[in-house]
Amino acid sequence: MKKGMIFDLDGVLVFTDHFHYLAWKKLADRLNIEFNESMNNQLRGISRQDSLELILKERSTDYSEAEKRKLAEEKNGYYREFLQQMSPLDVSDEVRNILRWLKGRGYQLAVGSSSKNAPFILQRTQLSGYFDAVADGNHITRSKPDPEVFLKAAEYLGLSPFDCAVVEDARAGIQAAKAGGMTAIAMGDAVGANEADYTLDSLSDLPALITKMEHSFKTS
Ligand code: G6P
Ligand code: MG
Fold first, then answer.
1. Which residues form the active site (predicted)?
2. Mean pLDDT of the chain, nearest integer
């Protein structure tokens, strides 16, 4: 049976979270709004416009919808300046080896990201060629924790969501994977142990986990 592995992008395959932080921080400083790294971590998996709402909080009503779109565009301008500097060196050999290993084992690979910049990041880092499908912020109307982006990724792979596993570093992403009926694999410390089906300290541990999961399919 064909199986799919769907990867979140920011924080799983590439470490762009710090760029998001620096870009939001620049905007927040200009608006005189408090913003720190721990607040940035709460924005993982959340769309740009929804992130802005969370940053503005009660000050959201000070701005019209058009002004808020401009603020989000301003942040994206700062963020894109960082992305311009990205290159294939921003993805470790280990990540590329793991993606090749999964392909060699017959998995179909997809990206499932809330980011509208995902195609640009995949192109800058030369990761596009590893994936059979990409579902990103340009294809969806509801961001994580809604399962839409992962359901799209499964659909683009031609697989049932039940035959897909998702690797995520965000609580919103784990909730999205579970809501979509996929196996949820949490990476890092964003998610409590009982929220995901499996947890990984880092992507390096994925092959051992996959081997274990395959073994339990055979024996159960
Ligand atoms: C990812 C990141 C979020 C970001 C979202 C939208 O999910 O984890 O922090 O807000 O993408 O990114 P974008 O590149 O479209 O602004
Ligand atoms: Mg992420």
1. 8 (nucleophile), 10 (proton donor/acceptor)
2. 95
